[in-house]
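Supplementary Text 2. Reproducibility record for the structural model of the 253-residue chain.

All settings were left at their defaults, and a single model was retained for analysis rather than an ensemble. We include the record here because the model underlies the residue-level annotations in Supplementary Table 4.
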Amino acid sequence: MSAGKILLIGLGPGERAVMTPAALKALSDCDAVVGYDGYLAQVGDLVSGKQVVSLPLGKEMERAGKAAELANEGLTVAVISSGDIGVYGMAGPVFEHLVSTGWNGEQPEVEVVPAVSAAQAAASVLGAPLMQDFCAISLSDLMTPWDTIRKRLDAAAYGDFVIALYNPRSSRRHKQIVEARDIVLKHRSAETPVGIVRNASRLDEDSMLTTLGELDSHFERIDMFTTLIIGNSTTYIHGRRMVTPRGYMNSRE
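Retained model, structure tokens:
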């Protein structure tokens, strides 16, 4: 039996309207789909009648292994993640598993289907905050040591990058967002604009603008469904929009 194919599919940030046509086609083409319950619920109607494998959060490598197993049986297998699957998603674990098991790089075939990331979706809600160099940093220390995250925050703040913060706060993890704010404040004004977007592009989308100095007043509204965008030294707020000018020569300062 010839090896099948693995389709790594980003579902986008939420609403079906912002899923790409390529993602919709890939879901239609697959024989089986592997994912976490929350992601599968997003596309339940699209995968009706297909083999569905659900594994909980924290079982990323198990999901990758199951996808490889099914592909080696000759199936076309969709592995799904919210946002872009290549940004803190399942693309990495799948490639890691395949490489660790002697994959030759060809069989099973692997195709990555890109999508709108959480940072892009949040930015569109806020205005135009990502118009200069920016970076994404996850505050989850589940897979990356906090000391490493701390160094990256300090370097990004020192380098005047606009910073998109993923996984900023969870029910069990409260201190990281506090320390992250303090690290950035070492290099940036307390008046630096910060955008807070929860459930971008979903029906219960919620957003607000604040500043780095006032961020501590809003920690309670921040959770794992929230993306923060911290402006750089040129970012400003106009009305209800957060804007980073295209170049430093256009700064309002």
